[in-house]
Specification:
The complex is a heterodimer of chains A (482) and B (153). By secondary structure, chain A is mainly α. Among the domains of chain A are: 143 residues, 2-Layer Sandwich (Herpes Virus-1); 119 residues, Four Helix Bundle (Hemerythrin (Met), subunit A) (Up-down Bundle). In chain A, the strands form four sheets. A three-stranded antiparallel beta sheet of chain A has the order 1-3-2. In chain A, α1 crosses α13, α12 packs antiparallel against α13 and α13 packs antiparallel against α14. Chain A is elongated. The N terminus of chain A is likely disordered. Chain B has 153 residues and is α+β, with helices and mostly antiparallel strands. Chain B has a single domain, classed as Ubiquitin Conjugating Enzyme, CATH 3.10.110.10. Chain B has a four-stranded antiparallel beta sheet with strand order 1-2-3-4. Chain B is globular. At the A-B interface, α6 and α11 of A face α1 and α3 of B.
C-alpha cells in the first residue's frame, strides 16, 4: 500500500482562499472567545495513522502477546483478531482452558476419528488432492490441522473466499475443519499473483482494523488514513489528511447530542422515500449484535450474521440459542387480522405525523446551514472590502467571521437535537430536553438575524448574542450528551 | 473446467457406493453440472415413496457450493413448496471445497428423516408437526402417496 498518499497536505479547497486554514482555526476558538468555557470537549482524543503506523500498532499487540504466552507470531495475530486485541483476555484463557481455547480460536484442529486419519495418510502418500481429485502432487501444502491439498486448489479457494470478502478468517478446505489460514500461509500460496496479493492485503487490513476497538478507517472518499482513538463517547474527529469530520464511534456525520444507534435509525428512516430505502426496509434487517445490514435470501429464519457470526431469529431478533419452542410466539401476532390492520392504519398515520414534525425541522436546519455557507462567503468578501478601503484591519473584523462560524456550530447541534427528541420517550426528561431545545432554537434564530444584519448591529450586541447561543448549546450538550 | 475431473470422480463414487438411501444417480448427457438423485428416506412418513433431488453445480465448483432442491413435492417442515430447504453445509458461508456430494446427500437425508421443527421453513407444517403429530403424519403420508415417485424394486 502506498505510503506517499498518507502525508497530510493542507488542501486549498476554496480555490484561491489561502487563509482557509486560518479561518478554520478561528472556528475552534470561537466558543472560548465569547467566554463560555466548555467543561467537556466535543473533539475526541485521536491520532491519524498511515498503513505503516497501523502495522506497528498491530506488531506491538503481537509482541506484547507473544511475550506473555507461548504462541508464535502468526497465531498471535489470529488470536488477537478474534479477541478484539484484548491481550489480558487471551492470557486468561491460556491459563484456564488452553487446549479448548486454541481450538475455539481456529488455531488447532479438533481431534478426528482414526479411520479418517488413516485415509488422510494414504492419500498424502499418493500425492492425492481430494478437491481436484488428482494425484501425483509432490507438494501438498497444509495448515496446522494437516489436511493436505494441492497448491492450485488452495489458490482457487483463497480467490473464492476473497471474492466473498473473507480474508482474516479463511478456513481450511476440509469439511468440518475450522482452522484458519495465517497470513503467512495465504501470501505464500498467492505469491505469483500480484492482484490477489493486493486484494488480500487490503481485505486483511480492513479485518484487522475492524477487529481493533481503537482503530477506525477515515470515512473520507479514497482516504487511506486510519484514526486511532480510545474515546468511548461519540465525539468528533477530523482527518488531518482529507479534512473530513465524522463521529469517532460510527463514522457518520458528527451527531451530538444524538447517539450512534439513534442517528443510524433516523438516517435510515429519512431515506425512506427512495426506492432503495423502501427495498432495504422491506427486505433487510440489521444484525441485533453488530448492526450490519442483512438481506434474507432464503426462507430459513435462522440467520447467522456473516460479519460477527451471531445467530439470531429473523422474526423476533432473539438469540437463536435461547429459541426452542418460543418460536411460534413470533408468528402468532396475526390472530385478529382486521382489528390489527385497522389499528395499524391509525397508528401509522399518527406515527407519520409525529415523524414529519421532527423531520421538517431537521431538514429545515440543514437547508439553513447550506444557505449560511453563502452568508459566510458574503461576510468574507465584506471583510476584504473593508480592509481594502482601509476601514479597519483584518483583525478588527474577525469577530464578524467568528459570529458566522459560531452560528454554524450552534445550528448544527440544533439540527441534531431533532432526531434525539424524536426517539426520546415522553416524560420529564423529554420535557426538559425540549425546553432547552426551544431555548437554543430561539437564540440561534436571533443570532442568525443579528449576523445577517451585522452592519447595523454593534459588535458588543452581536457578541452578546453569540455568548447566549453558545451558552445554551453547551448547557444542552452538558445535560444530554457528555 | 477444473470441476470436470472432480465431478466425474464423485459421480462414479456415488453410483458405486452401495448406500441404499439414494439411487438412480444421473447427470444430464450433455451437462456434467446437472445431476438428479432419487432419495429414499427410511423413516415414516416418507419411507413409502422416493423423492427426486436436483443438484446444480456452479462452474467454479468445488470452490462454490452446489444448489440442491427437491423436484418431487414433499410435505415437510423444512422444505418449502418450491422444494427449497436450508442445509447449512451447502450455504455460501459454510461451504468447504472438500465436502463431497455424498456428504450433502447424507445431510439432506438426515434432515428429511429427522425434521427440525424449531428451524422451519413452513411454519404451519412445523406447528402441526409439534402440536398435532397424528394429523401431521396422516397428511404427510397421503401427500407422499399422491406426489412421490415410485421406489425402485
Amino acid at each position: 500500500m502506498d505510503d506517499e498518499d498518507m502525508s497530510c497536505t493542507s488542501g486549498d479547497d476554496y480555490g484561491g482562499y489561502g487563509d482557509e486554514d486560518y479561518y478554520n482555526e478561528a472556528d475552534v476558538d470561537a466558543a472560548d472567545d465569547v467566554a463560555v468555557t466548555p467543561t467537556h470537549s466535543e473533539e475526541a482524543d485521536y491520532e491519524c495513522l498511515n498503513v505503516n503506523q497501523v502495522e506497528r500498532v498491530f506488531t506491538d499487540g503481537v509482541n506484547s502477546l507473544v511475550s506473555r504466552v507461548p504462541v508464535n507470531e502468526k497465531f498471535a495475530r489470529i488470536l488477537l483478531e478474534a479477541n478484539q486485541w484484548d491481550v489480558e483476555k487471551i492470557v486468561k484463557h491460556f491459563r484456564q482452558d488452553r487446549t479448548e481455547f486454541m481450538r475455539r480460536s481456529h488455531i488447532d484442529a479438533r481431534p478426528e476419528p482414526r479411520r479418517k486419519l488413516s485415509a488422510t495418510a494414504t492419500s498424502i502418500a499418493k500425492g492425492y488432492c481430494s478437491v481436484c481429485a488428482m494425484d501425483g502432487y509432490s507438494e501438498l501444502p497444509h495448515l496446522s490441522c494437516g489436511h493436505c491439498f494441492c497448491e492450485h486448489c488452495w489458490k482457487s479457494h483463497i480467490e473464492s473466499r476473497l471474492s466473498e470478502g473473507v480474508a482474516a478468517r479463511i478456513e481450511c478446505m476440509e469439511s468440518n475443519c475450522e482452522v484458519y489460514a495465517p497470513a503467512e500461509f495465504v501470501l505464500k500460496i498467492i505469491k505469483s499473483s500480484n492482484a490477489l496479493k493486493l486484494k488480500y492485503e487490503r481485505f486483511l487490513l480492513r479485518d484487522m482494523v475492524n477487529s481493533h476497538p481503537h482503530l477506525k478507517f477515515c470515512v473520507g472518499n479514497d482516504c487511506q488514513v486510519i484514526i486511532r482513538s480510545t474515546e468511548i463517547k461519540p465525539k468528533r474527529v477530523t482527518c488531518l489528511s482529507c479534512h473530513t469530520s465524522f463521529c469517532v464511534k460510527c463514522g457518520a456525520d458528527y451527531h451530538a447530542p444524538t447517539s450512534c444507534d439513534t442517528i443510524r435509525q433516523w438516517m435510515t428512516k429519512c431515506a425512506d422515500d427512495s426506492e432503495t430505502a423502501n427495498y432495504i426496509s422491506a427486505h433487510t434487517k440489521d444484525c441485533p449484535q453488530c448492526h450490519s445490514c442483512i438481506e434474507k435470501a432464503g426462507g430459513c429464519n435462522h440467520i447467522q450474521c456473516t460479519r460477527c457470526r451471531h445467530h439470531f431469529c429473523w422474526m423476533c431478533f432473539g438469540d437463536w440459542k435461547s429459541h426452542g419452542s418460543e418460536y411460534y410466539e413470533c408468528s402468532r401476532y396475526k390472530e385478529n387480522p382486521s382489528v390489527a390492520a385497522e389499528a395499524n392504519h391509525v397508528k401509522a398515520r399518527r406515527a407519520l405525523e409525529k415523524y414529519l414534525h421532527y423531520f421538517e425541522r431537521f431538514e429545515n436546519h440543514s437547508k439553513s446551514l447550506k444557505m449560511e455557507e453563502e452568508l459566510r462567503d458574503k461576510i468574507r468578501k465584506k471583510i476584504d472590502d473593508k480592509v481594502n478601503e482601509h476601514n479597519g484591519t483584518w483583525i478588527d473584523w474577525q469577530y464578524l467571521h467568528k459570529s458566522v462560524s459560531l452560528l454554524t456550530k450552534c445550528r448544527y447541534t440544533l439540527q441534531y437535537t431533532y432526531p434525539f427528541a424524536y426517539y426520546l420517550s415522553a416524560g420529564p426528561r423529554k420535557n426538559l430536553f425540549e425546553y432547552q431545545q426551544a431555548q437554543l432554537e430561539k437564540e440561534v434564530e436571533e443570532l442568525a438575524w443579528a449576523v445577517e444584519r451585522a452592519d447595523g448591529t454593534a459588535r458588543g450586541a452581536l457578541e452578546a448574542h453569540m455568548h447566549r447561543a453558545e451558552h445554551k448549546r453547551q448547557t444542552l450538550l452538558h445535560d444530554f450528551f457528555f | 473446467m477444473s470441476a470436470t475431473r472432480r465431478l466425474q470422480k464423485e459421480l462414479g463414487d456415488l453410483k458405486n457406493c452401495g448406500v441404499k438411501a439414494y439411487e438412480n444417480v444421473e447427470c444430464e448427457e450433455t451437462n456434467l453440472l446437472k445431476w438428479t438423485v432419487l432419495l429414499l428416506p427410511d423413516k415414516e412418513p416418507y419411507n413409502k415413496g422416493a423423492f427426486k433431488v436436483g443438484i446444480t453445480f456452479p462452474v467454479d465448483y468445488p470452490f462454490k457450493p452446489p444448489k440442491v432442491a427437491f423436484e418431487t413435492k414433499i410435505y415437510h417442515p423444512n422444505v418449502d413448496e418450491e422444494g427449497k430447504f436450508c442445509l447449512p453445509i451447502v450455504t455460501a458461508e459454510n461451504w468447504k471445497p472438500a465436502t463431497k456430494t455424498e456428504q450433502v446427500m447424507m445431510a439432506l437425508l438426515s434432515l428429511i428423516n429427522e425434521p427440525e421443527p424449531n428451524h422451519p421453513i413452513r411454519a404451519d407444517v412445523a406447528e402441526e408437526f409439534q402440536k398435532d403429530h397424528k394429523k401431521f403424519m396422516k397428511t404427510a403420508e397421503e401427500h407422499t402417496r399422491k406426489h412421490s415417485e415410485k421406489r425402485p424394486e
